[in-house]
Amino acid sequence: MNCVDREPVVAGSFYDSNSNNLKSQLNELFSDFKETKENISALIVPHAGYVYSGKIAARAYAMLNPDTDYENIFIIGSSHHVSLYGASIYNLGHYKTPLGLVPVNLNLANKIIQSSKYFEYNRGAHADEHTLEVQLPFLQYQLKSIKQIVPIIVGTHNPDILKEIAKILQPYFNSSNLFVISTDLSHYPTDKNARIVDARTVDAICSNQTQKLMQVLEENKELNILNLYTSLCGWSSVLTLMYLTQGNDNISYEKVLYGNSGEVMSHDTSRVVGYQSIVVTRNEQKSMEEISEKHKKQLLKEARSAIVDYIDHDDDLDSHETPQELLNFNSAFVSVYVSGDLRGCIGQFDADIGLVDLVRRNAVSAAFDDNRFLPVEVEELDDLNIEISVLTPKKKITNIDEIVLGKHGVFIQKGWNRGTFLPQVAEKTNWNIEDFMGHLARDKAHIGWDGWKDADIFIFEAIIFSE
């Protein structure tokens, strides 16, 4: 199918249509903001014309580390034009702005659409909609590269369906991806009333409690404030994000910058729109204690069950619920031993499935698909031992002096070649750092003994447990 790229429809009105002028406009908006923040999972940002809300949005975008190479950026906004059963994902081509093409992850877009009745492609949802488009130049300006986006327009106001949409997106809410939620706050009250209503709404969002947000939105209506058309125009998109984060103690919502349209242009304070930027971060510092003994036992049980099921010709590896406490983990390796001898080790970084499904998949692959070894036989099950390594997010480094052998695993990548050693490799081999890196480069990444010297290097830690 030929790509049909989505042309910008509000360039020249919401923001400048000339690329050089737009860069100058963005330079001005970002000029006062230099501070970045680590472990950002999501941004909530306004979507008005840049002259009105550009500064508010830029403050949040400026907190992104420009070097971060997100696997996907999910941009989610609520439709101003159409009603849908669920949500629409643009899957015809890519998005364009005056700053260039922004690639859409078409494979993922189609995968999500095909896997759920709550997603579709609806032309009207994207054709004249500004809510996603206005976010793209900010991302193009702040990030050195954008690998791909997933543009989603929410067209339902049904909280039950929004919850189902969040369930579909849950596996992608991880450290490899960024979520951008596009919304303004109150529409058309006076400046004084806007500040009152907006403060209530923002506090509810930052509580990370969906019921509190819904309650506050209803209470705002009951205030009978003159000309208050809505107190959160993109509430359905915000609620979707909150369904992803609610109950997760590692997630924090932080207010960044507030303003309203009465502060610019004509300074008309009699009828304003409110804007707030919010940054959502996660605590990525995982330790052994943060996976409970209960959940370790559950993961080991799931791994063994998957291997037995496979032998019994039951290939049901997916759709097993991952406990809330484990949702932040999306990288894991499974090692299989028979009578103490390694018979397979398979893993994956930055998976787009839950940890339980990931462990089950890797267990089967380690037992039967590691071509270095013979597949495990049914009569060997009694002598089988399983070891699971749940990995913390990868951190890019520039100097191997940062590697602590025995503590850090290392992942290297050079072009399409990549390889990894888990932390326990150093303990079993007693290599020094140069030998460790040499073997990793030559034996795993296949880029030669010294290939690591001009490769991208990442470190991670592992939470290791076994039967």
Provide structural commentary.
It is a single chain. The chain has 467 residues and is an alpha+beta fold. The chain has two domains: 19-282, Protocatechuate 4,5-dioxygenase, Chain B (3-Layer(aba) Sandwich); 288-466, Glycoprotein, Type 4 Pilin (2-Layer Sandwich). Helix content is 32%, strand content 22%. The chain is built from 13 helices and 18 strands. The chain has helices spanning 19-30, 50-61, 106-115, 123-127, 136-142, 159-169, 191-206, 210-222, 235-245, 293-311, 355-368, 423-429, 433-444, and strands at 40-45, 72-78, 87-89, 95-97, 100-102, 119-120, 149-154, 177-182, 251-260, 274-282, 332-338, 341-348, 384-391, 395-397, 409-414, 417-421, 456-460, 462-466. The strands form four sheets. Strands 6-3-7-2-8-1-10-9 form an eight-stranded mixed beta sheet, with helices on both faces. A four-stranded antiparallel beta sheet has the order 12-11-13-18, with helices on one face. The protein has a four-stranded antiparallel beta sheet with strand order 14-17-15-16. Helix 6 crosses helix 9 (235-245) and helix 10 crosses helix 11.
Question: How many angstroms separate the termini?
Answer: 49 Å
* CATH superfamily placement of the largest domain: LigB-like
The number of distinct helices, counting runs of at least 4 residues, comes to: 13
Cα Rg: 24 Å
| Strand-residue proportion | 15-25%
Task: Enumerate the spans where pLDDT stays under 50 for 5 or more consecutive residues.
Answer: none
**Overall mean pLDDT score?**
92
How many strands, what sense, and barrel or not for the largest sheet?
8 strands, mixed
Q: How many domains make up the coordinates?
A: 2
Domain AMMECR1: 294-467
Family: Belongs to the MEMO1 family.
InterPro entries: AMMECR1 (IPR023473), AMMECR1_dom_sf (IPR036071), AMMECR1_domain (IPR002733), AMMECR1_N (IPR027485), AmmeMemoSam_A (IPR027623), MEMO1_fam (IPR002737)
Pfam families: AMMECR1, Memo
